[in-house]
Design a protein that fits this description.
By secondary structure, the chain is of the alpha+beta class. The chain contains nine helices and six strands; from the N terminus they run H-E-E-H-E-E-E-H-H-E-H-H-H-H-H. The two termini are about 35 Å apart. It comes from Cynoglossus semilaevis.
Length: about 290
């Protein structure tokens, strides 16, 4: 079960990284992906990524930023069931987002997972997310990602009803369940824009988290049964595909870091024994056009 849960967490992010790389103003570069010891949460996997976020920034904010600022760096320490992720923008010194996550086998009824102080609790807003009942903007709705309709072929799980949490609480332990507790800390210390930016980050973060977890559920027929070795191979395939995509858009005169990254990924693939080919669904292949 632990392997299944860890696979659930990693697979969707590999797919979404490919989906994000669909043209100018978008894209993900995976700079590092390696195991670590004695780090956040103990032993785990460290990743360092660069997100090109131009298409996700509202026009009023994009207009005041230089193009070099339209990139965000992500460092992530995944030591399931604990993860820590930090986002920074090299151009904006007083900005950061720090997210700690604990995965628990409950329905979100623990009150102090992060052992916060009394002062921290007073500054914290609790915002429950229900992946079934929370509204979805019409332009983002997809039938194949409707949890009220989806039923897994491999696991026979689903569809989920609106009262799925209450149903579990009335019969605890009957089926597996997992809640992601996330503590998000945002720093944006620029006078005059702080409240507006923090509100924007909150709204976007909530939307991204809800969609990511809906997709994790609806894509279970793609990740169910994969081993952690399969997932590591998939991550390398994703890293290479993203490097290829970024190489198509890199401008003349820029450092050729993309080619160096592709070379290192290809070497890493060659070092993996008994590697198997893991294919993505058509939606992702069409998106990155490789």
């Amino acid at each position: 079960i632990i392997i299944t849960k860890a696979t659930l967490l990693i697979y969707p992010y590999s797919v979404m990284s490919r989906e994000e790389s669909c043209g100018e103003g978008s894209g993900v570069e995976i700079l590092e992906n390696k195991p670590y010891t004695d780090g956040p949460g103990g032993n785990g996997q460290y990743t360092h990524k660069v997100f090109h976020i131009g298409k996700h920034i509202p026009s009023w904010f994009r207009s005041i930023l230089p193009k070099a600022a339209l990139r965000v760096e992500e460092e992530s320490w995944n030591a399931y069931p604990y993860t820590r992720t930090r986002y920074t923008c090299p151009f904006v010194e007083k900005f950061s987002i720090d997210i700690e996550t604990y995965y628990k086998s409950d329905t979100g009824n623990q009150s102090d997972v992060f052992n916060m102080s009394a002062a921290e609790k007073r500054q914290t807003t609790i915002d429950p997310i229900d992946i079934v009942t929370d509204p979805i903007p019409p332009h983002e709705y997809k039938v194949e990602e409707d949890l009220r309709l989806f039923k897994s072929v491999k696991t026979q799980r689903g569809p989920l009803r609106d009262d799925w949490i209450e149903e579990y609480n009335n019969n605890p332990g009957k089926t597996p369940i997992m809640c992601a507790y996330k503590l998000c800390k945002v720093e944006f210390r620029y006078w005059g824009m702080q409240s507006k930016i923090e509100r924007f980050i909150h709204d976007v973060g909530e939307k991204v988290m809800a969609r990511a977890h809906r997709q994790a559920w609806c894509w279970q027929d793609e990740w169910y049964g994969l081993t952690i070795e399969d997932i590591r191979q998939l991550e390398l395939e994703t890293q290479l595909a993203l490097a290829r995509k970024m190489a198509q858009t890199v401008k003349q005169g820029q450092p050729r870091t993309v080619e160096l990254l592709m070379s290192s990924v290809q070497q890493e693939r060659a070092n993996i024994k008994h590697a198997k080919t893991i294919t993505f669904s058509n939606k992702c292949i069409q998106c990155i056009d490789i």
